[in-house]
Specification:
The protein is α/β, with parallel strands linked by helices and 175 residues long. The protein is built from 8 helices and 5 strands, in the order E-H-E-H-H-E-H-H-H-E-H-E-H. The two termini are 22 Å apart.
Length: 175
């Protein structure tokens, strides 16, 4: 996995427009969909508890396993979130960070410039896989910024503007 092209990250708290941006970027560059949402959908469909608001350890293990498999896809250039997001979720939940995350070679797999979608009240909405209150999203946003900064990533804040403007910023930066 370590010799494949590094992936660009788009991250942020739930409901900040990341997936909308990823879906628009797919027309131009290969993107990896958010693994967390797929894990939650599968856990809900099969009546299991691997969700961040239930068994966060199971959720973390499942997301890590699926994400590491998908990182092997050399065609992917942009990821909706990264494994480092799991560390932020665990920090907010006051849970220990497993060694497999703590020791993961983030900078060997991801570009050090990260696109960050800030919390945005005007576009936030709950859904079946996004049960968090907006206030939780603000707390998670702070934890995400701290984790990425602590690991030495450079943050580019995406403006609270149209998705096409956000797409243009991302593409101009990565090309």
């Amino acid at each position: 996995m370590y010799n494949l092209p590094k992936k660009h990250i788009i991250t942020g708290a739930p409901g900040t427009g990341k997936t909308t941006l990823i879906n628009l970027l797919k027309d131009t560059v290969p993107c990896m969909d958010e693994v967390s949402r797929r894990v939650i959908i599968d856990e809900q469909k099969n009546n299991r508890n691997g969700m961040p608001w239930e068994d966060i350890h199971r959720f973390t293990d499942l997301v890590f396993e699926l994400t590491t498999k998908e990182l092997l896809n050399s065609n992917t250039l942009i990821c909706d979130r990264s494994l480092l997001d799991l560390e932020a979720y665990l920090t907010v939940a006051n849970k220990p960070i497993p060694n497999y995350l703590r020791n993961f070679p983030y900078k060997k797999n991801y570009h050090t410039t990260v696109f960050f979608a800030p919390t945005w009240f005007d576009i936030y909405c709950k859904d079946a896989q996004r049960l968090q209150e907006f206030e939780y999203c603000l707390t998670l946003e702070k934890a995400l910024l701290e984790q990425y900064t602590k690991k030495g990533f450079e943050i580019i804040m995406l403006p609270k503007t149209s998705v096409t403007t956000r797409k243009k910023l991302v593409l101009e930066t990565i090309v």
